[in-house]
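In response to the reviewer comment on reproducibility (Comment 2.3), we provide here a single inverse folding case reported in full, input and output, so that an independent group could reproduce the run without further information from us. The structure tokens appear first.
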């Protein structure tokens, strides 16, 4: 990475945006220039980077001129609104929203799983949903050895998945309950402190909510397995940061827990956490602030001879969002895929 690159963070003041800023500093990303962009409401705020105070600018028509990479984390409507302008300016948008994930010409990339897909971009690369990323990092190393036939997942999703305001709401609700007062939900539809509820994303005609269908459809796309059988139940739980998932895998033949441990102990982006005597396995508190997906409690499914059970935890803001985006940017630079030759730049319509 001897060359330096001009990067813009779109949605710089949000939870993922500030994490992106921190990660660019931590990994010493080769920056020639860094531009922080947000809505006019947030313009004028200052954020620290490498000991300097950077001023957040309002996104506008000329904001992406002379930019190489846009790390977008301002929501689907914002990504759709600015995608044409970003691509026309010659930048690559790595988009953390759901706006383009399932578009057939937009790569959906988890660098530990399908890095080669990033080479096929036409100006936009989509970052998968947080629960999808965490599950895929843990499951794909096993899938490579013996293709998985079916995945059943139950997620335990922290407040961080709904943003910084939701995290603060849980703090305030917790204090209110401890003070004997009624918790007031404003960001989330129901009180989350000392409570949990099925994920509140819109329901689909299948009876699954959109969050659950993201895990299904995105995993099929990332694995290049359009018929892979997947079912998910997504639940919001009173944890501030880091998601957990209980994953049941069915294979065509038995897959021993010891073999799975051996594979996962060497898998990129995975850390094995198991202490059976102490009954100590991955927890959100341990995953918070970490790059790896923590995997443990690997065991034979006693209800099926070809079944395997996993328990995982991962930082939703970090690997589930910001880190995955930065890793994609690093991949584009390492492989010289920022502007592949003979590729028509065209913004897909959602």
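Designed residues, in position order:
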């Amino acid at each position: 990475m001897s060359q330096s690159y001009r990067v813009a963070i779109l949605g710089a003041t949000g939870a993922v945006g500030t994490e992106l800023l921190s990660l660019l500093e931590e990994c010493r990303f080769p920056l020639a220039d860094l531009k922080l962009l947000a809505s006019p409401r947030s313009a004028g705020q200052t954020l620290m980077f490498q000991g300097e105070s950077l001023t957040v600018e309002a996104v506008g028509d000329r904001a992406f001129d002379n930019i190489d990479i846009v790390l977008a984390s301002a929501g689907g409507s914002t990504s759709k609104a600015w995608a044409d302008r970003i691509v026309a300016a010659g930048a690559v948008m790595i988009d953390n929203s759901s706006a383009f994930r399932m578009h057939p010409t937009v790569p959906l990339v988890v660098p530990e799983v399908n890095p080669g897909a990033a080479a096929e971009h036409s100006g936009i690369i989509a970052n998968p949903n947080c629960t999808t990323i965490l599950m895929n990092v843990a499951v794909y190393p096993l899938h490579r050895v013996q293709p998985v036939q079916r995945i059943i997942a139950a997620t335990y999703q922290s407040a961080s998945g709904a943003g910084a305001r939701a995290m603060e709401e849980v703090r305030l609700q917790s204090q209110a309950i401890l003070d004997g007062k009624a918790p007031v939900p404003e960001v989330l539809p129901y009180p989350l402190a000392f409570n949990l509820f099925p994920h509140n994303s819109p329901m689909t005609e299948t009876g699954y909510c959109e969050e659950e269908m993201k895990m299904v459809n995105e995993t099929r796309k990332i694995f290049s397995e359009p018929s892979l059988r997947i079912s998910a139940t997504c639940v919001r739980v009173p944890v501030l940061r880091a998601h957990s998932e209980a994953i049941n895998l069915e294979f065509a033949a038995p897959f021993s827990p010891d073999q799975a441990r051996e594979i996962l102990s060497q898998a990129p982006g995975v850390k094995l956490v198991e202490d059976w005597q102490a009954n100590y396995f991955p927890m959100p508190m341990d995953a918070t602030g970490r790059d790896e997906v923590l995997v443990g409690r690997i065991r034979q499914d006693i209800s099926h001879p070809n079944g395997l059970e996993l328990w995982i935890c991962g930082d939703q803001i970090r690997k589930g969002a910001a880190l995955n985006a930065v890793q994609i940017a690093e991949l584009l630079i390492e492989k010289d895929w920022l502007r592949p030759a003979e590729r028509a730049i065209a913004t897909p319509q959602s």
